[in-house]
Amino acid sequence: MSKDAKELLATKVPMETYTDETLNKIVEEENYETFAKLKAEVEPYKNTLVLDGFDEVARLIDVIDGEWDFYYVVENNKRGIIHHSCVGTFIPLKGFIEQEKYDRLVHVWNLNHVEKAI
Predict the structure, then answer these.
(1) Residues 14, 17, 21, 22: what is their CA dihedral angle, to the nearest 10 degrees?
(2) CB-based contact 92:83 (threshold 8 Å)
(3) Which residues contact 45 (CB under 8 A, 6 or more apart)?
(4) Does the N-terminal or the C-terminal CB of the chain have fewer CB atoms within 10 Å?
(5) pLDDT single digits (tens) 28-77
């Protein structure tokens, strides 16, 4: 969030006194910061296997800015490529389970999917 937006919010002026333009600017800045944080969170795990928001093994593809929310894009066995809200989360598996077990998951995944996990 910009210094101006932070200062404006810090004044504790009632929300109804803000112009629509000012409120939109604050929201846009907050959305940009949130999206940048989500992109940074996803980047190390792109194309790796994770537990998705539905507790299924999935390949994490990316995060996108949808019309109403931010979404993790994942591919799982049952539903293919889906988007699920970033209100939920993903749980990385690479580096968090034994490497031998992770490699086995990747091997089985890659036997069954065109887009490969790493």
Answers:
(1) -40
(2) no
(3) 60, 90, 92, 94
(4) C
(5) 777 888 889 999 999 999 999 999 877 889 999 999 988 788 999 999 88
